[in-house]
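Quick one, C-alpha cells below. Sequence please?
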C-alpha cells in the first residue's frame, strides 16, 4: 500500500524537490498528494505543479491570529486525507492542539543533530559551540519544539574556516538525502506495525 503524503512548505522547496523525486519512483512506498504553502508565490509551489501535484496557498497573513490560520490549514490537510505530513522548510510553529490532531504522523526535518541546537540559527549555534560534527535530523513532530522521536539523522563535518552559509550548504545536501530515506523508513515501519497488529484481530 502506498502512503499518501502532504507536504507543508514556506519557501523554495529544495527538500520538497528531494521528496518529489523519491516519490516519482514506483518502488517508493509513498506518493505526494498535496503541497500547501503558507506563503504565496514561493518557488516550492512551482516545483509541485511541475510534478503534477495539487497545491494550495493558505497565507497566514490573511488570518487574524494563529487559531483561524491553523483551522484553515487543518481543513486543507484533512481534505487531502494524508497518511503522513512532511514539514519541509515550513516556517510556522504549530500549536499543540494542531499537532495532536495529526499525532504520530507528522515529520519535520531540522538542520542539527537533535537534541543539540534546537530552534533557529542552528548553524551559528554549532559554530559558536565549536563542534566538529554537525548534521540534520528527521523527527516525529510533538507539541514540544524540535522534539519527538528521531526517525533518522545524517552527520557532516564542520571544516576549518566554515561560515554559517558554507555549513548550511553542506548540511542542506545531507537533508536532501536524509528526508526521502527517513520517509521511506517511517512509512515501512508503520506498515509493518499495522500488518503485525492485524494478525491479532479476532
Amino acid at each position: 500500500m502506498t502512503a499518501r503524503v502532504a507536504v507543508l512548505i514556506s519557501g523554495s522547496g529544495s527538500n520538497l524537490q528531494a521528496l518529489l523525486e523519491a516519490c516519482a519512483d514506483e518502488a517508493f512506498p509513498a506518493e505526494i498528494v498535496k503541497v500547501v504553502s503558507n506563503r504565496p508565490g514561493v518557488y516550492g509551489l512551482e516545483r509541485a505543479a511541475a510534478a503534477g501535484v495539487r497545491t494550495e496557498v493558505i497565507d497566514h497573513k490573511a488570518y487574524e491570529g494563529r487559531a483561524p490560520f491553523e483551522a484553515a490549514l487543518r481543513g486543507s490537510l484533512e481534505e487531502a486525507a494524508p497518511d503522513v505530513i512532511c514539514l519541509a522548510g515550513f516556517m510556522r510553529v504549530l500549536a499543540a492542539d494542531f499537532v495532536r490532531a495529526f499525532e504520530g504522523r507528522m515529520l519535520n526535518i531540522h538542520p542539527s543533530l537533535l537534541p543539540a541546537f534546537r530552534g533557529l540559527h542552528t548553524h551559528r549555534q554549532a559554530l559558536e559551540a565549536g563542534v566538529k560534527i554537525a548534521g540534520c535530523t528527521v523527527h516525529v513532530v510533538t507539541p514540544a519544539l524540535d522534539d519527538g522521536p528521531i526517525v533518522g539523522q545524517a552527520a557532516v563535518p564542520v571544516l576549518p574556516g566554515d561560515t554559517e552559509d558554507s555549513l548550511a550548504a553542506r548540511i542542506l545536501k545531507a537533508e536532501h538525502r536524509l528526508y526521502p530515506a527517513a520517509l521511506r523508513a517511517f512509512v515501512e515501519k508503520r506498515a509493518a506495525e499495522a500488518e503485525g497488529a492485524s494478525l491479532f484481530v479476532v
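The CA atoms of residues 19 and 180 lie 5 Å apart. The chain has a mean pLDDT of 95.
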